[in-house]
Amino acid sequence: MSELSLPAPAKLNRMLHVTGRRADGYHELQTLFQFLDHGDTLDLRRREDGRITLTPGLPGVEHDANLIVRAAGLLQESSGCRLGADIALTKRLPMGGGLGGGSSDAATALLGLARLWELPVSLDALASLGLRLGADVPVFIRGRAAWAEGIGERLTPVELDTPWFVVIHPGIEVATPAVFGASQLTRETPPISMARALQEGPHAWRNDCQSTVRRLYPAVGEALDWLSGFAPSLLTGTGACVFCRLTHSDEADSILARVGDGWHAFKARGRNISPLHQALGLH
Q1: Backbone φ and ψ of 268, nearest 5°
Q2: Domain spans, the chain
Q3: Which residues are designated catalytic?
Q4: What is the residue-wise DSSP string for 51-92?
Q5: Are 67 and 50 within 8 A, CB to CB?
């Protein structure tokens, strides 16, 4: 095998509670991750000389700082592999959108290159490498919808409903540090059990970051208010993307037909098994 084309799917935080702040500045979270059948694509081609190339680059991101390149370098270093790869990225997910695009790209690079380079490496080992790149990377490595705690790295697989979603990006980028550093952010939501969260269900789920993001980024509030006119809507992660849950695909089409200029919107189906795992035959 010398070439692979693989998806890097989006994720939604179906709910998100902030339950505390650690001494190192990170926040303790409880969240439900679910994948979407929409995202970026990585085309990987093996090189024999050990070089890692990435095209195109991302605006404002140095080549060596890109999570895809960092993931490839970590895998080379940890495995002693002397192979390289040419990586072509088709970017569909917005940066700073709360859809996990960069983390998903990194996870696809780790899993895809491990396959391309024929490395005998476990999902546990890849998830540990991924955690060094970001707290959201392990859920993409493990490829199951999950209840997550800690900073988002302690994962328990779950089965969630798999509705249609409309996702709107209001054309801005949210700075996650600004949200978690805001004085008004709720940081003391009492922890709940996974069983209780699942029992309460989608109609009770909320995102503790939402009110803060509304105040800091009025464009997100405008998107939430507009989308809520069709169905109950939530922020994913720290945004900027917002989403609503729908029963039928044609409902999503009807909403998309009304989206105005300046917003990027798409419909997608929820998935409890990552499209990446399905493509690699890991489900």
Answers
A1: -160, 160
A2: 1-283
A3: 11, 136
A4: -EEEESPPTT--GGGSHHHHHHHHHHHHHT---EEEEEEE--
A5: no
Using CA atoms, how far apart are residues 204 and 214, in angstroms rounded to an integer?
19
Q: What's the CATH number for 1-283?
A: 3.30.230.10
Query: What is the average pLDDT across 217-234?
Result: 98
Long-range pairs of 56-63 with CB within 8 A, sequence gap ≥ 24 = 56/89, 58/91, 58/95
100-138 pLDDT per residue, tens: 999 999 999 999 999 999 999 999 999 999 999 999 999
| Residue 106, burial from CB neighbour count under 10 angstroms (0-12, 13-18, 19+) | buried
User: Where residue 203 falls among pLDDT bands split at 50, 70, 90?
Assistant: very high
* pTM passes above 0.85: yes
- Return the pLDDT at 165: 98
Closest CA to 144 of 129, 159, 162: 159
- Mean residue pLDDT of the chain comes to 96
**What token pair was written down for 71?**
């993931």
Q: Can you give the length of the chain in residues?
A: 283
